[in-house]
Fold this protein.
Amino acid sequence: MTGLKRLTCWFFLYVAIFVGFAIVRWRLWTYGADTGLFAQVVSNAFAGFVDGPERGTHFRYHWSPILAALWPLVALTRTPLVLQIVQLLLLGATAFPLYALARSYVAELNAYRYAVIALLYPPLLAVAFGEFHEIAFFPVLALALVWAADRARWLWFAACGFLSAMIREDVSITLIIVGLAFAAIGWVRRNRTTDAGLLAGEPCEPARLIAAGLGLSLLNATVVAFYFLVVVPRVGGWHPSRFYDYPFANGPLAVLAAMVTHPSDLLRMLNLGRFTYLLEAFAPLAFLPLLSRWTLLAVPGFAILLLSSDSIAWRMGSHYAALWMPWLLLGALAVLIGFERARSANAAMRWRTGALAVSLLVLVAFDPLHPLHYFRAWVPQRGASMALAVVPRSAAIATHDEWYTPIALEYPNATNVPCPGVTYAVYDFDFPNLHLADVRDAIAAGQARVIYASGVIAVARGAFDARAKPADCY
């Protein structure tokens, strides 16, 4: 069996397992609001990319035109579950450009052995298992971009570069640096007569690599400028800015300025959580990326996340890991290829085995997927289904995150926060929720009344925004 066929078998095994996981979570209603949110965004791709939880267009949060490519799938299936399947397929497919890169330098069997590391890399599996986000497109496109540059496949490079620029603004910021790095490599190696390849330090077509790298940087710089200077002012501001609020600075630009003017302020950011995040990123790859200059491409992504004041950005299992993930996999691969080129195939195999062993250890002992948490029913679904059936499909309805996602497409005006405009609230009053106080206060004040109740589950109709926090209702 060829190396590619073996890798494909591993990929299908991964898909079978994670599709099974997705179906179990879907049946148990343990997906949070993000999957439902993106289902509404994709469903409204040609009507402003709007959704309920974000109270308007998704462009207030991220530049994500690539989501429109998923509209046919959502329109055909009419279920947010399809987005979870797309996500795990995209992330699993990361192994194939990794294989293609390796195959240009090493034997087919070894290329397979190196590429399969991606399918056991805990941060990748954790993102695949989690709720859907558009950044799932990035790892496979980023590595395909490197492969195209390595093999001088410029049409593929242009296609991958364009699609990557449509994912998110933080991806575009990263790709500005990547493009400049490609151009710098082409310039430094412009007089080389050999064409061993990019990972060997001898690009096939240095002059075209310079042009391609500069073009990638220019495209993404244009996207970033267009998004922040044209789109953001028109949609009411960039709401992720709150991720960079500190006592000494408010917003990403202010944090960057503080790093220059008051470097001591950075000491306030140092904590155990950020350190363990880096440890969980590098350890499963046996710290191989630390031996490669290609890993420097991960620095912008790590900086974007580690400078955040919200720990969700640097919590392993969060989707943000997809921002740096491809560059660590690339760095590890470059080191393994370097071992083989130095005639140290045995060393390459030992390090590769070590990486797989640590990955398996992390998955068993420190599992970032947390399946025991998500593979149990949190709320009685039958009671929830009966209560939700009371509400008209066209109504503006607020409910628990976990109840919102299954109904996000059936109830196009559904959301997870009782903000202005919401006329129905469906809640399990024994299930923890930050917004239950709003609903209780509205009922007590006579602004709303219960029209259906079954045990601790109730449906109320009226106005529920008496205590809603402005930050919850953008």
Notes: The beta strands are 50-51, 56-57, 245-246, 249-250, 397-399, 424-428, 448-454, 457-462. The longest strand covers residues 448-454.
